[in-house]
Write a structure and sequence with these properties.
- It contains 17 helices and 17 strands.
- It has about 450 residues and is mainly alpha-helical.
- It has one domain: Glycoside hydrolase 144 (GH144) (Glycosyltransferase).
- The strands form 8 sheets. It has a 3-stranded antiparallel β-sheet. Strands 1-4 form a two-stranded antiparallel ribbon.
- A hairpin with a 2-residue loop joins strand 11 and strand 12.
- The longest helix is centred in the first third of the chain and has 38 residues.
Length: about 450
């Protein structure tokens, strides 16, 4: 009998405890959430739940918003996509290259149907191949009118913008094999006369205009042109000589090959389409090179934060972005920064240092989300102390986000471009081989530059 009473008492206490917990959760959860919202400024109408999601959903939200830029901002009749989301922005052919690559990502993620994606890509390639779009020896003007498709004002024929466009074109050609898209992609790529853009010199010119001819500026130093030279050396119609690869300057900064002005996007951009993990050429393992450059960018950012008496060691990112005086290059070196940072530096670095990148993105959203988070995710730039925030979304930024997040999650872009014969031909002619190096610069090239490379300067 006593045992029965004990059991009844125990059962009663359990019921009472459960009721107590339910009542308290009902009463106090709104208070807790309200306090959390107070502690995290970014939890407002512009970014209501982003910071509360796990990492996978967090990246999915950023990626989906970035994808929406390419889908919503494009002219559906031509497939052309604007440089940024301002009302009068012209089309950027580089942004079209990013957009073409992003469309299959949207298809794979279920954001659009396969039919929608196929039709948009086909429309875009038909526009680019038409007489409405002016070209010179297969190269495109950097900017086009969004409606007429004609050259925008005094825009230049750009070798790099054409390179980025061709990367997207080759990608969709691989993604849609056995279709008219593949045929159009190959036709557009093989029509690019890289030899003409060389203008008889040892490296490629940056641009050409009918008014002034070829620019005096050349792609003659290590930077994002790594991607362009792979495409140019892999061309079956107008290939450059393999020795051009050795004409490029590769300045060594202590233990990695440095780009001019330390613009971080120049390190990362080739890796949007090229999977160079575990590969090296005579000079470097370029994957490892990004890792070291990212570490320096982060350290440089943090040290400069401390100088300005604003301390958050998780926030970093010096690269091209919009600043107070417009879109320009910011970099982790003296004279190339003014306390303007971009969330797209750590976002683009996710495949290389995922933990530090995601940590930085969350910190940026927490500190600046209310002003920096817009229709397509993050806007372009912000000042570290929060006195200024960009209100503009740029297509190149959005492209780096959606494609590098997808490469981190699934290797999707790399998967298709790895099998492209033209890309493989370019890599083979350069002499890429398997690499087990943990360093960035190969021992043989490091020995050649001994005593010639420069030290880090803040």
């Amino acid at each position: 009998m006593r045992k029965t009473r004990v059991n009844i008492l125990s059962w009663f206490l359990r019921i009472f405890t459960m009721v107590f917990i339910i009542v308290n959760l009902t009463l106090f959860t709104p208070i807790v959430l309200a306090n959390l919202k107070h502690m995290i400024p970014a939890l407002d109408s512009k970014a209501p739940r982003v910071l509360l999601s796990d990492d996978d959903e967090f990246l999915n939200i950023i990626s989906k918003k970035a994808f929406n830029y390419f889908w919503n901002e494009a002219n559906p009749d031509t497939g052309l996509i604007p440089y940024n989301n301002t009302a009068d922005s012209p089309c950027s052919v580089a942004v079209v290259g990013f957009g073409l690559t992003a469309i299959p990502v949207g298809m794979e993620r279920g954001w659009i149907s396969r039919e929608e994606g196929y039709n948009r890509v086909l429309t875009t390639l038909r526009t680019l191949a038409s007489d409405n779009v002016q070209r010179k020896h297969g190269f495109f003007y950097e900017l086009l009118d969004m409606k007429s498709c004609k050259r925008f004002k005094k825009s230049t024929i750009s070798s790099m913008d054409t390179c980025i466009l061709m990367s997207g074109i080759l990608f969709v050609g691989e993604f849609f094999p056995g279709t008219v898209i593949r045929n159009l992609a190959n036709k557009l790529y093989t029509s690019v006369d890289w030899q003409w853009m060389g203008d008889g010199k040892t490296t490629l010119a940056k641009n050409w205009t009918p008014e002034s001819g070829f620019s005096t500026e050349r792609w003659d130093s290590f930077d994002e042109s790594l991607l362009m030279y792979v495409l140019a050396l892999g061309s079956p119609t107008y290939p450059l000589p393999a020795q051009i690869w050795d004409e490029i300057r590769r300045p060594v900064r202590e233990n990695y090959i440095s780009v001019p002005k330390e613009d971080f996007s120049s390190y990362v951009l080739p890796h949007v389409w090229l999977n160079l993990r575990g590969k090296e050429d005579y000079y470097a393992n370029y994957w490892n090179n990004v890792l070291i450059a990212a570490r320096y960018n982060r350290i440089y950012s943090i040290l400069n934060h401390n100088e300005s008496k604003v301390r958050n060691p998780d926030i970093w990112g010096l690269s091209k972005c919009e600043g107070v005086n417009g879109y320009r290059v910011y970099g982790a070196s003296a004279g190339n920064h003014d306390d303007t940072f971009t969330p797209y530096a750590p976002i683009s670095c996710i495949p290389f240092i995922p933990d530090k990148s995601i940590q930085a993105i969350r910190a940026i959203l927490m500190e600046h989300g209310g002003d920096l988070w817009g229709e397509y995710g993050f806007t372009s730039g912000y000042t570290w102390n929060g006195t200024w925030h960009s209100g503009t979304h740029y297509g190149i930024d959005e492209g780096m986000a959606v494609l590098m997040i997808e490469n981190y999650r699934t290797g999707f872009v790399w998967k298709y471009l790895t099998s492209n014969n033209f890309i493989q031909s370019g890599l083979d002619r350069i002499g890429f081989r398997a690499s087990k190096m943990k360093e960035a610069v190969t021992p043989i090239y490091l020995s050649e530059t001994e005593g010639k490379h420069y030290q880090w300067s803040f």
